Amino acid sequence: MQRREEKVVLDKKNQVILQMLINNSRNSISKISKIVKMSKPAVLQRIRQMEENKIILQYIAYYNLIRAGYKFHTILLEIGKENELIYAEKLSCSKFTCAVIQLAHKFNILWMVFSRNQEHLNEIISEVSRTMKVKDLKILPIVDYSFDNYELFAENKKKIIKKHNKEIIKLDQIDAKILNVLKNNSRESLVGIANQCNITAEAIKKRIKKLEENGVILRFFTNFNIFKLGFQPYVVLIKTNRQKHKEIIKFIRQHKNTNGQYLVDDEFDLMCIVVVKDISELRGFIDQAHSLFRDNILDYEIYLMVDQIFNDFFPSGIYEDII
What is the bridge-based pairing of β-strands 258-264 and 297-311? Predict the structure, then answer.
């Protein structure tokens, strides 16, 4: 996601192509061409144009490394405006950083970070804090999380919610190499991944399937320029009375405007990313949640996202741990 810039309107064909790549960046050109009723060269040309116009930014993968035994935290930081981007870059350089997001809020940087344990988290925070002037911070331990791609261009289409095993698994060196390839290009062919891992394409296919079933691989996703297409993302923290938790999570996951959903071990026990065209759509999401769960949702906080500065769901520190 990028800063606001001149908006672009996609035609219906490009909307369908982009939505299919958002839903699964590994969707084949053949499959897309059948849906949009165009030739494969014509589809490829449209995709390349969207890449050249910086509408499609990167083909990535979302992983849940809690399944591999790591801890995951979202940390909200209040820092001086004059140091905002400098500090954001420093956080991005930490080997266990997953994401750095600029917010329009008192807490103006959202930092997502993996760690081996609480002691390791304290070390990571201490290391970056030594060179930063932090006015305030709020640490949100993430118990679990999922990614259910938003349906921004598919009207009235019900989202497909994936279910995963929740057991802790051990990743080996081959798994780590596969995840490292896919995080940088989730459209890489099985043969291309196999060549980098020195095993067969069939073995790669089986391992990817197993990593999906175990809930390590959550989604293959196309990162696109949200602002350029006229959308605005928000981080929403929700405080509940812990009743009807499953129903509230299901509502959030199935809503067409949501992407990441996080279960938090804190006073505000749920967090989600909501992407909308305007403030009325955001209000509609909040009003619908209140209408359905008025006795269960006690409070919420809304953070406007200005820019996603860094994003890496398989940080180099974890890769080095395994390799």
Answer: unpaired
Give 273-277 contacts, CB < 8 A, sequence gap 24+. 273/233, 273/234, 273/235, 273/236, 273/305, 274/233, 274/234, 274/236, 275/150, 275/152, 275/226, 275/231, 275/232, 275/233, 275/234, 276/231, 276/232, 276/234, 277/230, 277/231, 277/232
For helices 40-52 and 29-36, the axis angle rounded to 10 degrees is 100
Burial (CB count <10 Å: 0-12, 13-18, 19+), residue 170: exposed
CA 100 to chain centre: 11
Lowest mean pLDDT: which of 42-46, 161-165, 175-179, 282-286? 161-165
Is pTM beyond 0.70? Reply is yes
Residues 144 and 72 sit within 8 Å (Cβ to Cβ): no
Q: How do beta strands 217-224 and 71-79 pair? A: unpaired
At 3 the pLDDT is: 52
Could you tell me the domains of the chain?
Answer: 170-213 (1.10.10.10)
Residues in contact with 136: Cβ distance below 8 Å, sequence separation at least 6, in sequence order: 77, 78, 106, 107
DSSP 69: T
Q: Is 140 in contact with 268 (CB distance < 8 Å)?
A: yes
Range of 147-151, 206-210, 240-244 with top mean pLDDT: 206-210
